[in-house]
Structure formats: C-alpha cells, structure tokens
Amino acid sequence: MNKLKRYLLFLVGLFINALGVSLVTKASLGTSPISSIPYVLSLHFPLTLGNFTIIFSILLIVLQILILRKNFKMENILQIPVSVAFGYFIDFTMYLFAWMNPQNYLVKLISLLAGCIVLGFGVYMEVVADVVMLPGESFVRAIVQTWNTNFGTTKIIFDSSMAVIAGVLSFLFFGKLNGVREGTVIAALLVGFIARLFGKHLEFVKPYLFPEEYAAKKEEPVVENTVEAGHKNVIVIGRQYGSGGHEIGKMLAEKLGYEFYDQEIIEMAAGTTGMTPEFISKREESMANSLLYDLFNQMYQYGNEEEEAPKDKIYEAEAEVIRKLAEKGKCVIIGRCSDYILRDNSRVLKVFFTAPIESRIRRVMKRLGVEAKDAQHKIHREDKMRADNYHYYTGRIWGAAANFDLTVNTDLGIEYIENCIERIL
Hints:
This protein has 425 residues and is mainly alpha-helical.
C-alpha cells in the first residue's frame, strides 16, 4: 500500500513537473536546461516538445547503460515508461496553455517565475515519492558513480552543457538564439532552489503521507542509559561569541568530572564523512546567508544521502555524534545546535551564555590581540553566522530563552554559574 502511494505521488509530481515545464516554455524566455535541446529541436522539426523529450530521455538511458554497463540495474528500466508519460504530459499541458502567448516582458517574467514555482513543487513531490529518477538526474548519477565526481558540480556541468548545445543548435537552425534565453538561466537557478525550500518547509507533511513508516520508527525501542530517568547528566552550551562560553564549559566539565566536547566533535564527524577536520571546522557553524546557501546547494536536490550538500552532511554527521555522546551521559557539549538536536532528551540541561558587548569586546581583544573596533566587528560577524546557521537547521531564533533551561550573563562569574548549574543538576 505504501509503495502504491509513493508511485501515485510520483505520477502526480510528474504531471505537475510537466505543467511547470510548459508554463516556463510558454513564457517565451527560454525553457529549463534539461528541456532546452528538445525545445529547440521541436521549433525546427515537425515533432512536438513532448516527442523530442521522449527521444532525448531514451538517449540518456542508453548512455547510462553504456556508462554503467553491468552496474546498470534493471529497476532503472522504469525510466522508459516514466519518460514516455512525461513526454505526453508535456504535450497535454502545452495544449492546455495553447491560448497563452504573452507579449509584455513583465507578463512573460511573471509567467516564467510561476512556471519555476510549479516545476519546483513537482520536483519536490518526485523527491518525496523517492521511487524513480528522471533520465537527466539518473544520467548525472551514473557519471558520479562511475568516475567518483561530485554530484552538485556534475549537475551544474550537465545543465550548462544542455543549454550550450541547445544554443549551438539554435544558431545552426535559425542563425540566432531561439528557445534559449535568460529564462533558461533563471530556471536553472530557481527550480532546485524552490524545490529545496518546499522540502524544508513541508517536512511536517511526510508523517501524514507515510504514517506506516513513521509509526514503525516510533515503535523502535529506546535504549535508556543507566542513569535514572529525569536526572540531568548532559550539559549543552550555546553561547554568544566572546562570552567565554567555551572556557566556562571546560571548567564545568573538570569540576563535575564530565567529558568535554567541542573540537572533538569535529574529529568524530570527520571519521564518518570522509572530510578533513580542517574542512569541517571552516564550514560547520558558518553561514553568511541561508538563501544564498540554498540557492547554491539546490544542485544536490536529486542526490541521495551520500550526495547531499557538504554543509548538510556535516550537520547530520555532527548531530549523530552529539546523540551518541548524550547516550553515554556525563558530558558537556559546546554549540552545534545541540540544544535543538537533544531537545527531547530529559537528561539534558540546556544552557545559553551571554554577556554585555563591552565585556565581550575586552575578552576578544585579549584573546586575539586586536583593537576594540576589530573585536566588535568580529563579534557581530560571528554572532550573525551562528544565528543564521542555527535558524536554518532548527527554524528557531538563536539564543531565545524559551529554547533553554538557563540563560545566564557570564559577567556574574564562574563560581556563581557553577553553583547554579550544580543545583539544577
């Protein structure tokens, strides 16, 4: 029943995908990169866009067989009926929009953006269904599997190549660009980005779509550690930059006889991701702009768990490390959204350290040997990156008191803070 539901969801997503392609195409500003070659061919030859989409998809499937050879799985043959259905869906939706012929550039742009949103939602539905990949994405994965390339980079090269080839064909047939325009670039940038946004904000829908799977997960036995239920023996610390949270956390661990984890989490995550500790350290909690991050990493929309965007992979790896450390108990964990990751663990004491800006400036000046102005700039930059990173992965406001058991000003002194925490424990 669950499998049938996934295939039905995929089929609906495929139709919405075709609807989006037709909307983008009818905007007359170019079409999506994967449809650009079939579209240019359809403008020159008597076959329809849907017909050329089927032919082009079959070509990509044949290329997959040549690339993968004996590694080509029989289940990938499902791409053929999917491609045929997609081609006919495109022709049907193009027929539905036969009346559409915008002349005003603003109207064209609105139609293009509407098409990108519809196409992005279709892509989101296909990814949620998780049953079959379309030939374009499956071709990219075949290259990744055979030559061990990066999925995101390979996808960018593939999409760019489709647009370039379509542009060359356009000049050969018409002596000018026809069917490949600014809309092709806009669709390339926006569609996966929009699909990723749908994936983030509609995550709550999955338990309703597949209740059987989520019910099975809930029934899995929870391993209790040896400490009695309700006794807090894990401290997670969020902190403003320059508040001294790291140093206070280390002192707390020493006084309580607990393990202390900060940089150690990076080392543990490196062991499971194949990334170097230096690579993780530079990227783990730094996010200058979450929208730009989503825009860049939309190229990983079709990747499986092993092909997800590097920063997402770091977050998941560190989250898994944090959960395992919390299972052992008797530890202090610094940062990395640990208050959110362990939000349902009754043994966790969640603490956030803050301090007046003047104190933080003095602390940073002393630690880095910089002037007050540079220290203040560093504080604002680091706090913003931490806040953006925290909000991106948790949907919460960084440092909000409601997310913690204790929010404390470090200017009150280490002795006072230690006494407060010991009494809570």
